[in-house]
Amino acid sequence: MPAMLAACAEAHPNIALIKYWGNRDHRINLPANSSISFNLDGLVTRTLVVFDPHLNQDRLVINGRERYREPLKRVQRILAWVREHSGKYLYAHVISVNNFPMEAGIASSASAFAALALAATKAAGMHLDERALSRLARLGSGSACRSVPDGFVEWRAGVRDEDSYAFTLFPPEYWDLWDCIAVVSAASKPYSSKEGHRFAETSPIQWARVTDAPRRLEWCRQALKNRDFQALAEVVELDAHLLHAVMQTSTPSLLYWEPATVALMHQVREWRKQGWNVAYTLDAGPNVHILCTSDFAMRVEQELQARPDVQQVLTARPGKGARLVPLDLCRDLFRQGNLPLPTDLL
Amino acid sequence: MPAMLAACAEAHPNIALIKYWGNRDHRINLPANSSISFNLDGLVTRTLVVFDPHLNQDRLVINGRERYREPLKRVQRILAWVREHSGKYLYAHVISVNNFPMEAGIASSASAFAALALAATKAAGMHLDERALSRLARLGSGSACRSVPDGFVEWRAGVRDEDSYAFTLFPPEYWDLWDCIAVVSAASKPYSSKEGHRFAETSPIQWARVTDAPRRLEWCRQALKNRDFQALAEVVELDAHLLHAVMQTSTPSLLYWEPATVALMHQVREWRKQGWNVAYTLDAGPNVHILCTSDFAMRVEQELQARPDVQQVLTARPGKGARLVPLDLCRDLFRQGNLPLPTDLL
After folding, report:
1. CA angle B300, B305, B307 (to 5 degrees)
2. Between A211, A245, A257, which is nearest B262 by CB?
3. What residues pair up with A325 in beta bridges, in sequence order?
4. φ, ψ of residue A328 in degrees (nearest 5)
5. Chain A, 213-232: which have a CB under 8 Å from a chain B CB?
């Protein structure tokens, strides 16, 4: 097996400031509206892809466990694209690890598909530019396209595959925002995000959320540009409430909030009244992402850790996009996949 | 003072199944959308009005306490209308009592203005039909117009004062639904409902809620007509979530929910999965109204009373509209207002 049919990449999940919910075209994850996010540098997915002529089917190992069915199928969508466009018609080992607890309800699909898109194309000898890589990651999971570029990112919705991709608005160091994630429930979701995106259109207010999106996007871009935390707080909380409004009013109704979720919302509003630069947002789950400027991060983290209704606190700052990892730093992944180390690493 | 310039009336608050939120015209409480409710027979406001040539200003006494400013002003709006249309240009004593705790967050303005409209017009010797009475009550508080007719009521929004009034859809005994009200917080609201109605138009989804209202109204009418609890549960919860979605996404953002509110929502959904006929709705506050068919009412009430996060449980069934109370049953109200009993009652 030639060493060049293996590649490893890593990527971060991202937290959306303006949310993605609902698709214009479910087949290719063409979103109903544009969105804005930043990558979370503290949380990492690292993925090794090895195309192997000796395999007779694709393999997926996540955190040391072989995976089949749905997760494997989604990975195969990316592999199929790569095989078709590279001409390398080989099955692959896909070995992936997350440094953050998957059971904590932090979506790992964004970082997973961003890392996979980069590792798989590279392993097949392809050199995609950022835009093409972002589009490819999108096929695995919509929000994964936002984990490809660096820092603060906008995913322009577009109207077809070619023009639906993410790009950097500002580099990670532009604004030292922190995301303190209060994990309040480890309960797994009754519905996947993938299903949720399909339910969005059953809500009588989804179209109003989408129609109003350009206003919120511009509001958010300006807040980032001016590093205006108050403006950012207002639009981010509004947008999170719009997301959950749609989810709660869809059929079936998705009520992700827990008692602690609401308690934390009130707490953040109270802190902001006292002059703290804090704001909350939520993805499709009960955990509360508390955004703050770096001068408040330690205090927020301490306060959260002291609460009995918070099970765990994770913190992250704006991070880079998907990037390659030298294979000699990935020996553990080869081991997790029971793969022999390439000869040049021995 | 001739005995006929005094009258007493009582009315119930109502719980909306399809909510009123936002106005087309704030001056006369012309609502943005039609709504449906039923009167809550367990909760009563009783109001005595006495026009008195010896007074040199209007007086308002609620639960034995003299009230001034805002509450008095709103009452005077009704009194002014009555004076103008009856020609009885006299100041009035308005003595009112509620049998339910005002601090429990159960809106008393609906029952208060329905009772006031009837008592004041009657005291002035006027005989308004139900529709005119409903319109008059609406001037004091929009939802008060729904407490005028009996039982299950629709308030047709209309487009001007003349055609915005409530009428009976079904009499109280048509369907023995119970409302078990879980009082979870006695905290007074940061904003009044009157202010909230003005904020509604700042939400980017209010227009979608209003545009979709005819569909929900018809869904609710059919559910009532067919006594179809499942259909009622679905539309009532959807409508409550739409109301709170608008409130949470308005400027300022109104987050009325408390941790216990969300805990109860999950509990009700869980009960319904187990086959109980239960559904929740919420007004502009954190308390959860749990609607159920009579066969589940006792169980629901017991379960609620056993919860540490529920402070108080009130129950009510569909009730009558505003009605007169003979003056000889109102001696206590005369006493509370320090008024001499009319000679024919002595």
Report:
1. 100
2. A257
3. A8
4. -70, -5
5. 215
Contact B204 A208 (CB under 8 A): yes
How does pLDDT run across B40-76, given as a tens digit for each residue? Answer: 998 999 999 999 999 999 999 999 999 999 999 999 9
In chain B, which residue's Cα lies nearest the Cα of A214?
Answer: B204
Distance CA B103, CA B101 (A): 5
Mutation target among B211, B256, B262, B268 for the A interface, most CBs of A within 10 A? B262
By Cβ distance, the residue of B204, B242, B260 closest to A259 is: B260
Helix axes B130-140, B69-86, angle to 10 degrees: 150
Provide long-range contacts, Cβ within 8 A and 24+ apart, for B296-303.
B296/B178, B297/B178, B297/B180, B300/B178, B300/B180, B300/B271, B300/B276, B301/B180, B303/B267
Domain B5-344 in CATH 1.10.10.10? no
**Structural element, H or E, at residue B313:** strand B312-316
> Hey, is the C-beta of A238 within 8 angstroms of any chain B C-beta?
yes
Tell me whether strands A312-316 and A177-183 are parallel, antiparallel or unpaired: antiparallel
* Surface-to-core class of residue B188, CB atoms within 10 Å of its CB (0-12 exposed, 13-18 middle, 19+ buried): exposed
For an interface test with A, the pick among B203, B217, B241, B272 (most A C-beta atoms closer than 10 Å) comes out as B241
Cα distance between residue A83 and residue A121, in whole Å: 9
Span A59-101, pLDDT tens digits: 999 999 999 999 999 999 999 999 999 999 999 999 999 998 7
What is this model's ipTM? 0.91
